[in-house]
Every structure is written in structure tokens, then in C-alpha cells.
Amino acid sequence: MNATIVLHKRPVGTPVLTDFRTVTEKKPEPGVGEILLKTSYVSVDPYLRGRMNDTKSYIAPFELLQPIKSGIIAKVIESDHPDYKQGETVYGLLDWKEYQTSTGKGITRVDVEKFPPSAYLGILGMPGLTAYLGLSEIGKLTKGETLVVSGAAGAVGTVAGQIGKLMGCRVVGICGSDEKVHMLKTDFGFNEAINYKTTRNMRRAIAATCPKGVDVYFDNVGGPISEAVLAKINKFARIIICGAISLYNETSLPTGLSVQPFLLRSSALMQGFIVSDYEAKFPEAMHQLTEWFSTGKIKQAETIVRGFDQIPQAFIDLFTGKNKGKMVVQI
Ligand code: NAP
Questions:
Q1: Which of 88, 169, 296, 298 is the most exposed place for a label (fewest CB within 10 A)?
Q2: 157 lines ligand 1 (CB under 6 A)
Q3: What is the pTM for the complete model shown?
Q4: How far apart are CA 208 and CA 109, in angstroms?
């Protein structure tokens, strides 16, 4: 039999396990020209939360009672496809299923001899591209500048911070535990890190860790953390609006600080960023990330959870920060 995880109910607020359901069906058989894939690693990502709402966004909502889809690494276990052989490993945006067939459309072969399979879901996948392209297309860091990264200990944040260090910048991370603060400073070379859960005055903490102000802010979280950073931006600062995880489970948008005075007085640029808009730049970005990763200049942080049935919980755990680096489920 074949297990599939479907969206059972649209979450209201923070997702819970009963929003998901596992259904079993007959294991599929590949048709003419198709491959049969066995899932090995599943990426859980904060943006999937938005797809669980029935609202228009940059990507279509999931349908109720249909499988959830995310980045998946899978093994070809049968092939009637001229381009794929049994035993090869592929990446694709695939269903949360143990087994599925594919025509090969949207699938890419990955070299698991060269890099661990999970790297293709993190540093050499969508999160790595997001960090690289957000910084190169909007951040435009120059040596000696100060980069602040929120959601710093996650998949995108750990890569963004490491790139900032490679660019010769002062890098300050914002994250949700002392263990993460320690990891960012000792394992990933951040100059400073702030635990936003135990810091009473974030503005003061930003001022203390960024004595020359903030030139680039890589914003993964939005909300009050970002308001504190905005208060410290320098003339011509660049603010990359990559994510707003602190708001994803809100049922109505909270009112916050008005950003205009901060942007106006510093002539700053604040720009939304969706990685898929920069597809033309993926090869260049991947080339650079691969080079840095293979020469040890950047490292992957990851949290690997085991078991197909653990996928929904791993996803839910992103919202309480249980992950360090990329959250991946190994099947
Ligand atoms: P991630 O950072 O690996 O995981 C999410 C992290 O967010 C958690 O570990 C948690 O860490 C933090 N978090 C959860 N709730 C929070 C809250 N209320 N306030 C502050 N932090 C909170 O996830 P990721 O894949 O790297 O994604 C990071 C952000 O980038 C997300 O907002 C995501 O939607 C966005 N993103 C955007 C694009 C794009 O194209 N625009 C692409 C990829 C990702 P703590 O322990 O630090 O709280």
C-alpha cells in the first residue's frame, strides 16, 4: 500500500495535526514513458502554510483532501523513461506520498555521490537560492557593511549570514534560543546573535550589536522584530522582505509600526522577494553555492526527523523553532 498525506482541514491560526490526514491507496504502477519514485527526503517549509489558506497569493492554494506538495528527493525504482534509470536520485516538487509516478516533467537528477541528498533541499536547493539571490539582487552587500538576518538559525538565514561573512560584512543574526545564538557565532561565524525570546528591548540590542547601524536587513520574520531593526537602518539601507513567519498564523493582520518615516529619512529600499521570480539567475546562483559548499566556505545546518508519518509534525514544529537549519524528514 501507499501512504499519502492530504490537507484535511484548512488550519485556523497555528496548524495542528488534525489539519492533516494520512490516507492509504494502492501503490501506483508506472505507465508507458513514466518512472516510479520512492520518496527518501521531504522538505517542510514555512511557505506551505500560506498555501493551506484559501486565499490568492503568488502560488495557488492546496486543495482540500488532496496531497500536500513540497520539495522532495526520491529514488527511481522503476523506469520506462528514456532519460532516467532505476537507482538514480531526483528532486522535484512532489506529493507527500511514499510512492508516486512521474512523466519526468519538473524533475531534476541530483548527484548523491557528490553531496548528501538533503543538501539539495537546503543549501543547494530553494533556501540556498533564496539567500543568495535575495542578497545579490536586492541586498547588494559591500565589504564592511552590517547585515542583520532574522530567522537567522533557519535554512535561509544560516546561508544568508554565511554569505554576508564571505562578502566581508559584519553579520548579526536574530533567532529564538541561546543554543541557536551559540551555533550562529561558533559554527557559522556570525559576529553577534540576539535571542529575541529573552531580549526585552530589541531596539537596544540591535543598537548594541550594530554600532555602525544596519545597511542590509534580510527579513525572514516580519512583525515586531523587524520594526526594531528598521529603527536602526542607515542611509540607503536595503531591506529584503523574504518572509514574514511571525505573521503566517495570524487570522487578521496586526497593526504595527508605519514603515514610511524610517524609509524616508534614510532613503532606504524595502523590496519584496520571491525566489521563483529570479529563475533565470538560478544556474549562476547554483554554480556559486556549489563552489562555496564543495570548498567548505559555506556549511549546511539541518535538522533531520525520521518517518513518513512525522511530516506534518515537522512542518508544525517550524512555527515553534524546533529546527536548527533546514528541517527535513527522512523516510
Ligand atoms: P526556517 O528559518 O528554517 O524555519 C522557520 C524558523 O522561523 C523557525 O526555526 C523559527 O526559528 C522561526 N520562527 C518561527 N516563528 C517565529 C516567530 N513568530 N517570530 C520569529 N521567528 C519565528 O525556514 P526557512 O525555510 O529558512 O524560511 C525562512 C523564511 O523565509 C520564512 O518566512 C519563509 O517563508 C521565507 N522564505 C521565502 C522565500 C521567498 O522566495 N521569498 C523562499 C524561502 C523561504 P526561531 O527559533 O529563531 O524562532
A1: 296
A2: yes
A3: 0.97
A4: 46
* Domain coverage including residue 268: 126-276
| Residue to substitute in 150, 180, 220 for testing ligand 1 pocket (most ligand atoms within 8 angstroms of CB) | 220
Q: Using 50, 70 and 90 to split pLDDT, how confident is the model at 101?
A: very high
Non-local CB neighbours of 300 within 8 Å, separated by 6+ positions: 116, 118, 119, 122, 123, 158, 293, 325, 326
Q: How many CB atoms lie within 10 A of CB 76?
A: 22
- The answer on 177 and 41 residing in a single domain is no
Ligand 1 proximity of 125 Cβ (cutoff 6 Å): no
- Rounded CA-CA distance 207/214 in Å is 9
User: At 67, which amino acid appears?
Assistant: P
Residue 317 lies in a domain: yes
Q: Which of 245, 303, 322 to mutate to test the pocket of ligand 1 (most atoms within 8 A of CB)?
A: 245
> Residue 102 C-alpha to ligand 1 middle, in angstroms?
30
Decide if pLDDT at 254 tops 90: no
Residue 32: pLDDT band with limits 50, 70, 90 = very high
DSSP codes, 48-73: HHHHTSSS--SSPPPPTTSB-EEEEE
- Confirm or reject: Cβ of 50 under 6 Å from ligand 1: no
Q: What share of the chain is helix, strand, coil (3-state, %, to 5)?
A: 30, 30, 40
Give the ligand 1 atom nearest the CA of 50. Answer: 34
**Per the structure, how many domains does the chain have?**
2
Is there a single domain that holds both residue 175 and residue 211? Answer: yes
The residues facing 172 across adjacent strands are 148, 192
Shared domain check, 183 and 114: no
Phi/psi at 22 (5° precision)? -100, 125
- φ, ψ of residue 116 to 5 degrees: the values are -60, 140
